[in-house]
C-alpha cells in the first residue's frame, strides 16, 4: 500500500491559502478539506488555526461553524515576504541586483513600467 506523501507545514499552509484565494467567499474547514483532498479535517483545522494566529486568515462567524477568508491577497503576502527578506540581509541593494538579473523579459518589462508609473509616488 502506498503511503501518502508528507507535506511540510509550510506547504500545507500554502495549499490552504491557495484554496481561500481561489474563491470570493469565506470557506469552512470542511469546504477547504474537500477542495484540497488527502487531508484530515483536524489537519485542516490545525492549519487554519496557525494561519489565524499568524494573522494570515480571518475567521467569520457562520452560525455554529466558522468560515475563513484570507487577510491579504497573494500579491500582498508575497510583497511582504520579499520586503522581510530584503530587510534581513546585510546588503539589500545587492539582493535586488541578483533578483533583477533573474527576471524574465516579461517580468523586467512589467517592473520597468511599474517603476515609471510610481516614480513620483512618495510612498
Automatic annotation (TrEMBL):
<dbReference type="GO" id="GO:0045892">
    <property type="term" value="P:negative regulation of DNA-templated transcription"/>
</dbReference>
<keyword id="KW-0804">Transcription</keyword>
<dbReference type="GO" id="GO:0003677">
    <property type="term" value="F:DNA binding"/>
</dbReference>
<comment type="similarity">
    <text>Belongs to the BlaI transcriptional regulatory family.</text>
</comment>
<dbReference type="InterPro" id="IPR005650">
    <property type="entry name" value="BlaI_family"/>
</dbReference>
<keyword id="KW-0238">DNA-binding</keyword>
<dbReference type="InterPro" id="IPR036388">
    <property type="entry name" value="WH-like_DNA-bd_sf"/>
</dbReference>
<protein>
    <submittedName>
        <fullName>BlaI/MecI/CopY family transcriptional regulator</fullName>
    </submittedName>
</protein>
<dbReference type="InterPro" id="IPR011991">
    <property type="entry name" value="ArsR-like_HTH"/>
</dbReference>
<dbReference type="Pfam" id="PF03965">
    <property type="entry name" value="Penicillinase_R"/>
</dbReference>
<keyword id="KW-0805">Transcription regulation</keyword>
<dbReference type="InterPro" id="IPR036390">
    <property type="entry name" value="WH_DNA-bd_sf"/>
</dbReference>
Amino acid at each position: 500500500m502506498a503511503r501518502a506523501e508528507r507535506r511540510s507545514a509550510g506547504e500545507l499552509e500554502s495549499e490552504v491559502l491557495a484554496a481561500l484565494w481561489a474563491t470570493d467567499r469565506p470557506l469552512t474547514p470542511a469546504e477547504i478539506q474537500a477542495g484540497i483532498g488527502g487531508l484530515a479535517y483536524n489537519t485542516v483545522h490545525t492549519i487554519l488555526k496557525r494561519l489565524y494566529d499568524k494573522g494570515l486568515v480571518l475567521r467569520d462567524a457562520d452560525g455554529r461553524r466558522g468560515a475563513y477568508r484570507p487577510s491579504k491577497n497573494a500579491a500582498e503576502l508575497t510583497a511582504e515576504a520579499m520586503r522581510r527578506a530584503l530587510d534581513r540581509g546585510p546588503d539589500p541593494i545587492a539582493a535586488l541586483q541578483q533578483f533583477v538579473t533573474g527576471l524574465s523579459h516579461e517580468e523586467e518589462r512589467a517592473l520597468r513600467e511599474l517603476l515609471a508609473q510610481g516614480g513620483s509616488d512618495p510612498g
